[in-house]
Amino acid sequence: MSEPNRKPKSSAALLQSRRNALRSYLGAYGFMAPAGVLVLIFFLIPVAIVLYLSVTNLASSNFTSDLAKMEFIGLKNYRTLFNDQFARKIFFNTIFYVLVTLSLFNVSLALIVSLLTTHIDRSAGFVFRALWILPRITSPVVYILIWKRMAAEAPFGILNQFNELLGNPTYNYVATNPWVFVVVVNGFIGVSFGMIIFTSAIESIPKDLLNASLVDGSSRMQRIRYVILPLIRWPLLFVVTYQTLSLLTSFVEIQLLTDGGPGLYRTEVWSLTAFHRALSNYFGNAQWGYGSAFAVLLVMIGVVLAVIYMRVFRFDELVAEPRVEAL
Amino acid sequence: MEIRIDNLTKKFGDVVGVEDLTLHIDDGEFVAFLGPSGCGKTTTLLTLAGIYKPTDGLIRFGDRVVNTVQPKDRNIGMVFQSYALYPHMTIFQNIAYPLKLKKTPKNVQNEQVRQVANVMGIGELLDRRPGQLSGGQQQRVALGRALVKEPDVLLFDEPLSNLDARLRLTMRGEIKHLQKNLGITSIYVTHDQVEAMTMADRIAVMNRGHLQAFDAPDELYDRPKTRFVAGFVGNPPMNFLDVEVSPSNGHFLAQADSIQLPLGAERGAPPAGHGGPVVMGIRPEDIQIVDEGDVTGEIFVVEPLGREDLIDARVGPHGFILLADTEKQHRAGERVSLKFDMTQAQFFDPQTERSLLWRQ
Ligand SMILES: Nc1ncnc2c1ncn2[C@@H]1O[C@H](COP(=O)(O)OP(=O)(O)O)[C@@H](O)[C@H]1O
Ligand SMILES: [Mg+2]
User: Fold this and answer.
1) In this predicted model, what pLDDT tens digit does every residue of A41-88 receive, in sequence order?
2) Contact B88 A222 (CB under 8 A)
3) Domain containing B336 — which CATH number?
4) How far, in Å, CA of A226 to CA of A292, rounded?
5) What domains can be seen in chain A, in order of their start residue?
6) Terminal-residue alpha carbon distance, chain B
7) Environment class of residue B90 by beta-carbon count within 10 Å: exposed (0-12), middle (13-18) or buried (19+)?
8) Is B355 within the bounds of a domain?
9) Residue B321: left if φ>0, alpha if ψ -120 to 50, beta else—which one?
10) One domain, residues B85 and B158
11) What span, in angstroms and rounded, lies between the C-alpha atoms of B30 and B184?
12) How many cross-chain Cβ pairs, A to B, lie less than 8 Å apart?
């Protein structure tokens, strides 16, 4: 409130305004508290524990659940990791896996499915999208078993049974093309997320705008290029960001399909290594400390990537200005 | 461009958008589609634009049947109620978009966009985005975008409905002026009869997917061919009254309860010949409050409109809307004598709702 002749505020008024400020401050934190508690319990505390484990040599041979009794070894695990001859290979495996799956499936195929199913009859589009959600909602074990059955060696594999029927040579598909299978199997799961986001973004573009483009002289392809894609730019960037991070940390399907093989670390990715080292070492010795070092680096990579994405894609603008309104 | 629509039907599943519409529009003509919400105006317009495929019937632009021609190959400009500007493009890019799609050279694009922008008075706004413009400015941009490609046909879908009343009045004049200057065949969809009456050469009145009338504005007003048209065109709307018309010593008499109104042969003979009850229509401006009138009644409500008073007068069970000079200072409850100008009365068949005076 502005008064015409401003007098210095009385101390009572000053106290009152401080009290109001405090109240709105507490109100804001009150609303954030439930989410904050979840982040604390399920993210910050586990990160702190893993961080601590990564500077101990905790393993099955010297196991203890007492944090105080664990043996502190400084950065030795990290030194071992950087000198590990396979860590380099696993690192590039991870980049390859994330980039290829993301670009071919989680973004491109998701976009193609969304565009196709929004350009055909509504209910047919709905059915196709529902089919694409199946890999996501099927339990990973069942889903991977289906793929394994499909691709198994003769005489068990379905594909190979066809090969035999047709008199073609048979293949051990997964063993000969492990990366193709790892990418396709994960890609099929990854399509649904982008598909749902892109479809709802496309469907929220006002009909008038889409009609206007056709009347203005665009073909349907030109309308996608000049109107639809620019208008779903933010959902696109969001899916790229979110799916990069989610692919970085996913390993269950790879574990079930190839378990990082065949051979030494052919399809091993970083998050799977963390699991292997910490919980399922080939040599029967679970190295929790060493595995934690892998996990800590993964968290750091994830956080750095998230920050880079937010900077490059300027998500702060998205939050600052209601873009949706302009649609 | 001459447009001929023959027996056009467009259905969405079981829902009828428009049915059996036949309409021939002359080259350079300004035609309004007038009708209440949901009567099929937009459906017809989008079918003409090529967004919807006709379920049945023929649409011809000139001699070319365009039923299956893609929108981009029809050379039409369209203006939407929501403006439909591309939010991610600048105003310049919005107007240039149709030219870009036609692969017009950049320098020609530049020139034409600036020219159109100047005509529309938006030359200074070219670097802005649609979100930074007022509604009126956005509608000018939309109009500019429709005009820049020099279309053969202009389609308007309630372009002024989202503007305030003052702006609507200005834009009404400007659109009409532009259309006459450019001579582009135009179809203008509106539910506002004042817009239709003031702008159009001819008005197609639609109701529930059917064409009710297609005539010049004064024809529709003076010689409505259906009861719907009579009631829809004109503000305040026409009064309707169930009457019996019978000959009475050389004249005719329209009767309803205590009301008795004398009629000349020109207007009286057809309803009398029809036999049985008919619907009489009389416009508010054709009823006067006088000292010695045809009937006496009581004023029920007075609504001041500024220039005049809108009066709801009751005669027995029948109500009439009429207009009176504000200086007379009529008050509710006042007893008044009403004079009906029966040379302007309309008569309709109560079943078919067709006019008994004007045959289709
Ligand atoms: N895309 C559509 N799908 C189904 N029904 C529609 C569609 N478009 C319009 N309709 C129906 O067709 C009728 C006419 O609608 P419309 O042409 O939009 O009316 P108006 O523009 O005169 O208000 C309405 O009953 C409407 O519900
Ligand atoms: Mg409409």
Assistant:
1) 988 888 888 888 888 877 777 777 777 777 778 777 778 778 888 888
2) no
3) 2.40.50.140
4) 47
5) 72-326 (1.10.3720.10)
6) 27
7) middle
8) no
9) beta
10) yes
11) 8
12) 66
Same domain for B258 and B174? no
Q: Do B177 and B265 belong together in one domain?
A: no
In this structure, is residue B357 part of a structural domain? Answer: no
Integer Cα distance of A28 and A47 in angstroms: 26
* DSSP, res A224: I
Based on the fold, state whether residues B220 and B144 are members of the same structural domain. Answer: yes
A224 Cα to chain B: minimum distance (Å) = 13
Distance CA A254, CA A97 (A): 10
Residue B200 lies in a domain: yes
Domain limit, last residue, from B175, B197, B232: B232
Q: Which residues of B touch A326 (CB under 8 A)?
A: 87, 129-131
* Same domain (yes/no): B136, B262: no
Q: What does the alpha-carbon distance between residue B75 and residue B152 come to, in Å, rounded to a whole number?
A: 6
DSSP A40: I
- Verify that B259 and B121 share a domain, yes or no: no
Which residues, numbered 14 to 53 in chain A, qualify as contacts with chain B under a Cβ-Cβ cut-off of 8 Å? none
Question: From the CA of B31, how far away is ligand 2's center (Å)?
Answer: 16
Q: DSSP states of A98-135 as a string? A: HHHHIIIIIIIIHHHHHHHHHHS-HHHHHHHHHHHHHH
For residues A228 and A231, give the distance between their C-alpha atoms in angstroms, rounded to a whole number. Answer: 5
Does B14 contact ligand 1 (Cβ within 6 A)?
Answer: no
The candidate with the shortest Cα–Cα distance to B242, out of B287, B292, B280, is B280
Q: How far apart are CA A277 and CA B351, in angstroms?
A: 89
Give me A108's structure tokens.
Answer: 């491109």
**pTM score of the predicted model:** 0.80
Domain membership flag for residue B359 = no
CA A257 to chain CA centroid, nearest Å: 19
Residues of B near A (CB-CB distance < 8 A)?
Answer: 46, 49-51, 70-72, 76-78, 80-82, 84, 86-88, 97-98, 101-102, 129-131, 145, 149, 155
Residues of A in contact with B155 (CB under 8 A): 215
With cut-offs at 50, 70 and 90, classify the pLDDT of residue B265.
Answer: confident
Q: Are residues B281 and B330 in the same domain?
A: yes
Q: What CATH number should be reported for the domain holding residue B225?
A: 3.40.50.300
How is residue B37 written in tokens?
A: 């919400």
- Enumerate the residues of chain A whose CB falls inside 8 A of the CB of residue B76: 215
* Domain membership of residue B154 as a residue range: 3-232
Q: Give B320-353 pLDDT, tens digit per residue.
A: 999 998 888 888 888 999 999 999 999 999 999 8
pLDDT at position A281 is 62
Q: What is the pLDDT of residues B146-188, one digit of tens each?
A: 999 999 999 999 999 888 888 888 889 999 999 999 999 999 9
- The mean of the pLDDT values for chain B is 91
Nearest-CA distance B186 → chain A (Å): 15
Domain boundary among B185, B208, B232: B232
Sequence-separated (6 or more) residues with CB below 8 Å from residue B98? A216, A217, B77, B145, B148, B149
Distance from CA of B110 to the nearest CA of A (A): 17
DSSP strand pairing (B346-348 vs B210-215): unpaired
Instruction: Please indicate, yes or no, whether residues B37 and B98 belong to a single structural domain of this protein.
Output: yes
User: How many domains does one find in chain B?
Assistant: 2
Long-range contacts from B210-216, C-beta under 8 angstroms, 24+ separation: B210/B18, B210/B19, B210/B20, B210/B21, B211/B21, B211/B22, B211/B23, B212/B35, B214/B23
